[in-house]
Every structure is written in structure tokens, then in C-alpha cells.
């Protein structure tokens, strides 16, 4: 069996039939990391001994005929901002390089209970600020399809790890696209759940009203499996919601009558013509399966990026106040308290973190609060209203009375770009998030699915769903994947 391309559903079956064992799977992952992680920098730490020890435990339990939990013996990568008890969690930042998690994030706990093996922590942009995984204190992650290119960000380590076959599945976090965009740029599936579906307890916060933990995998069915395990109400996160976490058996053969909205504002200048063509081909595959394609309008789309880049830094500036060399971080030499704050934060935060702290502090300061932060919140409400209307049949020309079930857009305006290309140009970097941030502002679920290639680099399409309707996204995704094989392509990786 090819461990580098197998889905977790396949791995589960192979363990059940005795074709393989958890030890063999973990060994295969370790071997693959040995060979490739040096060049890709996807994992910043691998829990080799622990992973092997757990694999042995699960194999023994299986051999003893015990009843096993759903993810027994399956290795999973976890982004460096999700706490795993006893391990370093540094959020890609120097300031947290000495921080060891004293407790498990709820998602980590639920995964462990379900039998998953936490394999290691993956690289990320510092505090999840970025779209390329270049702002990490551990250096950039490389795109497995072309190691001169970025893997997207901020969860680029998790995306590269799954795309390169280092692990079958990984967790990321998505504040403005950080699961969907790297999934798109590395040719895998990435889901950002509805705000509130997955507990944020134990996730190092970037912007608390936007953050959601998401999943990377090779197909939609694997995502469903992980979502069932990690989702649902958690008393430790007041924003988490009791949902029916059971995703019914995915019916991949039938999307007849599914109403797919195509927002005209997402297909405009600035996007690569070839990317557009791939997404339109994907639309046609869905149409052929009986989906109804409806043009809709989301009129406030053009303000989304501006609103996001006020709200996100505002919340980030407040969340990052605790990293001060007193509560967190190794203090720099200083003679006064103020000097300690200034020196520690100056030395241990990277450039992008500083930029956003400055932006956010400015937007929240008295005198500017109404002009920036409050205005951005008003825009956010308008954006949410646009989606509400689309999902209830009131979204603009041609769509009166036709409520859509999902909305189809590109995930990213371009394929992966060269490492360094946008690094010194924050505005251009921010523009890469143009198709993903609205989903976070509106708190909706979104999935990116591989839908072809441009210049040998993967292209992703995004499906956006109604709140808590991940099921429809996954069903449409599973249908699409039963008709196409983009998700089965893997990079050559002759590194
Ligand atoms: N690229 C976006 C940003 O830089 C999104 C980050 C994220 O989702 N964590 O803020």
C-alpha cells in the first residue's frame, strides 16, 4: 500500500484487514519525514518516540481483540499554535520558543481519545499572520510541488505535510483563509468549519472572533471523519455550539438539485485567467451532476479585505499583549519594567507581528476607534447580510426566490508564488486573501478542493456553506472527487 497517498479511511480498512499496522504507518511517515522534511520544513518537531510507542499500544489492543476508537493508530500533524500537553507550542514565534503546553487543547484531547497519534507540530507564519509561511521564526516552509514556491499560509506546514505524504491528515487554524488557501496552493482538501463548530480552547489566539481550527486531508470523507471527532460543544469555549456533529454517510453520487451560487464579484480582474478557467471547469463538473448554477451578487465583497485588515489586527493587538517577557517569553536584560516590555517585544516579535500590533493599536485608540474599528464592524455586518440574502434567495439580479445551498468561488487568485516574491510587500501579500476573508467575517464554513493545475501548480476551488451546514460542503466535495482525480495527484518530489 502506498502510505504517501492513502486516505485515513483506507488506512483504517488496511489495519482492520491486517494488511498493515499502526507501527508500519508511523514508520512510513517517519521515513518520509527523514527523506523530505529537511527540504520542506513542514514539521518543526516530530514526536518520534511517543508516536511509535502509541502505535505499538494500538496494535496490541487490536491484536487483543479490543474494541477500538475511530482513529485508532492514525498519525496526525498539528499546527504549532494548538496546545498538546507537555510539548512546545510556539505559534512560529521566537517569543514562545520556551513555552511548553501545560494542558491539551480540546481538539488534541478529543483526537487522543479517538485514538489518533499526534505526530508532531507543523510550521506556520508567526502567530498565524501571513499567507505564505515565510514569517515563521523557524524559516519558511516549501511547497512540495515546487520547492522554490510558497505553500501558502499561515498553516503552510500542515498543508505541505499532507501534500507531501508525510502524514495523512493535519490540523490548521483559519482566521482569514489559513486552512483553505494553503490547501489550494498545495493541492489538497482544507476545511474551515463554521465559527463555533470546533472549540478554540487551547488554540493560541490570533483574532478571537474570526479564528477556527480546521482540517487538511486528501479527500472530503477524511475531513468528515476528523470533524466528527473534534467538533461540538465544549464548556471551555463559550462560543462553541452544540451541533449535530454526526455527518451522515456522505452520498457522493447525488448532487441533483443542489443550488450553487456563483458570485459575480469573485470573478473579476486581478485573478489569473487560467485559475478562473480551472474553477469554471469545476463548476461545469458539478452542473453535469445535476447541480443548478445560479449567478448571485455579494455586493460588499470589495470592502471585505479592508474590514478584515482592521478587525484582525485590532483583536491581535489585544491578544498579543500577554507576550511581554513577564507572563510569556524569556525577558531581555533590562533595568525597568517598561524597558523589559520594550526590549523583549522588540527582540522577540517578528516584523509582521509588530506591524499588526501597531495597526491594531492604532485602530482601537480613542479618536480612531469610530473611524476604523467601528466602521469595520459595520462593514462586517453588511458582508454577513450579503451571505444571508444569498442563502435565503434575496441576493441580487437573476436570483430572486432562488436560495442557494452553496457558493462556489476560487480559493486564491493565483497559484503558488516564488518564495520571497511578496515578502517585502505586505499589501500584495494581503491581496492573496481576497477570496477567503469574507467567510471568516461572516462566520461561515468553507472548503477548498483541488480542481486542476496551472503551470504544474495546484489550483483550488472554494465552496462556502450555510452556518453549520458542513455536510453539504462535504457531500458536494465528495461528489466532485468521485468524478475527478485532481486530489489523487501527488508531487514528484525529487528533492
Ligand atoms: N493570510 C491571512 C492573514 O494574514 C489569514 C491568516 C489566518 O487565517 N490565520 O491574516
Structure, explained:
There is one protein chain. This protein has 495 residues and is α/β, with parallel strands linked by helices. The chain has a domain at 8-257: Amidase signature (AS) enzymes (Alpha-Beta Complex), CATH 3.90.1300. Helix content is 37%, strand content 13%. The protein has helices at residues 8-16, 22-40, 48-63, 106-113, 156-163, 180-186, 220-230, 273-288, 304-319, 337-348, 351-364, 370-392, 426-431, 437-442, 470-483; strands spanning 43-46, 75-79, 117-122, 170-174, 189-192, 212-217, 259-263, 292-296, 406-410, 446-454, 457-465. It has an 11-stranded mixed beta sheet with strand order 1-3-2-4-6-5-10-11-9-7-8, sandwiched between helices. The longest helix is centred in the C-terminal third of the chain and has 23 residues, at 370-392. It starts with 7 loop residues before the first helix and ends in a 12-residue tail after the last helix. Glutamine binds next to loops.
Per-chain topology:
Layout: H1 8-16, H2 22-40, E1 43-46, H3 48-63, E2 75-79, H4 106-113, E3 117-122, H5 156-163, E4 170-174, H6 180-186, E5 189-192, E6 212-217, H7 220-230, E7 259-263, H8 273-288, E8 292-296, H9 304-319, H10 337-348, H11 351-364, H12 370-392, E9 406-410, H13 426-431, H14 437-442, E10 446-454, E11 457-465, H15 470-483
Parallel strand pairs: 2-3, 2-4, 7-8, 7-9
Antiparallel strand pairs: 1-3, 4-6, 5-6, 5-10, 9-11, 10-11
The protein binds glutamine.
Amino acid at each position: 500500500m502506498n502510505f504517501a497517498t492513502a486516505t485515513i479511511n483506507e488506512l483504517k480498512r488496511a489495519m482492520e484487514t491486517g494488511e498493515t499496522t499502526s507501527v508500519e504507518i508511523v514508520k512510513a511517515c517517519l521515513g518520509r519525514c527523514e527523506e523530505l522534511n529537511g527540504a520542506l520544513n513542514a514539521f518543526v518537531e516530530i514526536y518520534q518516540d511517543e508516536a511509535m510507542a502509541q502505535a505499538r499500544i494500538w496494535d496490541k489492543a487490536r491484536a487483543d481483540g479490543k474494541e477500538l476508537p475511530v482513529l485508532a493508530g492514525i498519525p496526525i500533524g498539528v499546527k504549532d499554535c494548538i496546545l498538546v500537553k507537555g510539548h512546545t507550542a510556539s505559534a512560529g514565534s521566537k517569543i514562545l520558543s520556551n513555552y511548553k503546553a501545560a494542558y491539551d487543547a480540546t481538539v488534541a484531547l478529543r483526537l487522543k481519545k479517538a485514538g489518533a497519534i499526534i505526530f508532531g507540530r507543523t510550521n506556520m507564519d508567526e502567530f498565524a499572520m501571513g499567507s505564505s509561511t515565510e514569517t515563521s521564526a523557524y524559516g519558511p516552509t516549501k511547497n512540495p510541488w515546487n520547492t522554490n514556491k510558497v505553500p501558502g499560509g499561515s498553516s503552510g506546514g500542515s498543508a505541505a505535510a499532507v501534500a507531501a505524504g508525510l502524514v495523512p491528515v493535519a490540523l490548521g487554524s483559519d482566521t482569514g483563509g489559513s486552512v483553505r488557501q494553503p490547501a489550494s496552493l498545495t493541492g489538497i482538501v482544507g476545511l474551515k468549519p463554521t465559527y463555533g463548530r470546533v472549540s478554540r480552547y487551547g488554540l493560541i489566539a490570533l483574532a478571537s472572533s474570526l479564528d477556527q481550527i480546521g482540517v487538511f486531508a486528501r479527500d472530503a470523507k477524511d475531513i468528515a471523519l476528523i470533524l466528527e471527532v473534534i467538533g461540538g460543544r465544549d464548556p471551555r469555549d463559550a462560543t462553541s455550539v452544540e451541533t449535530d456533529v454526526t455527518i451522515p454517510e456522505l452520498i457522493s453520487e447525488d448532487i441533483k438539485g443542489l443550488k450553487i451560487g456563483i458570485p459575480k464579484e469573485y470573478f473579476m480582474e486581478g485573478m489569473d485567467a487560467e485559475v478562473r478557467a480551472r474553477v469554471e471547469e469545476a463548476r461545469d463538473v458539478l452542473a453535469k451532476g445535476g447541480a443548478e448554477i445560479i449567478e448571485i451578487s455579494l455586493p460588499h465583497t470589495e470592502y471585505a479585505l479592508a474590514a478584515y485588515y482592521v478587525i484582525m489586527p485590532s483583536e491581535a493587538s489585544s491578544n498579543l499583549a500577554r507576550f511581554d517577557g513577564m507572563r510569556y517569553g524569556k525577558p531581555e536584560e533590562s533595568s525597568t519594567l517598561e524597558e523589559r516590555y520594550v526590549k523583549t517585544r522588540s527582540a522577540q516579535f517578528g516584523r509582521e507581528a509588530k506591524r499588526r500590533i501597531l495597526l491594531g493599536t492604532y485602530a482601537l485608540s480613542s479618536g480612531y476607534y469610530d473611524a476604523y474599528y467601528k466602521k469595520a464592524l459595520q462593514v462586517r455586518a453588511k458582508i454577513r447580510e450579503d451571505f444571508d440574502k444569498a442563502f435565503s434567495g434575496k441576493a441580487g439580479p437573476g436570483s430572486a426566490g432562488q436560495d442557494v445551498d452553496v457558493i462556489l468561488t476560487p480559493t486564491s487568485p493565483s497559484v503558488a508564488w516564488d518564495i520571497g516574491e511578496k515578502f517585502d510587500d505586505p499589501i500584495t501579500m494581503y491581496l492573496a486573501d481576497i477570496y477567503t476573508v469574507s467567510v471568516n467575517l461572516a462566520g461561515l464554513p468553507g472548503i477548498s478542493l483541488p480542481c486542476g493545475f496551472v503551470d504544474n501548480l495546484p489550483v483550488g476551488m472554494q465552496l462556502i456553506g450555510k452556518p453549520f451546514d458542513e455536510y453539504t460542503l462535504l457531500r458536494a466535495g465528495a461528489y466532485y472527487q468521485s468524478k475527478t482525480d485532481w486530489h489523487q495527484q501527488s508531487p514528484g518530489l525529487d528533492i
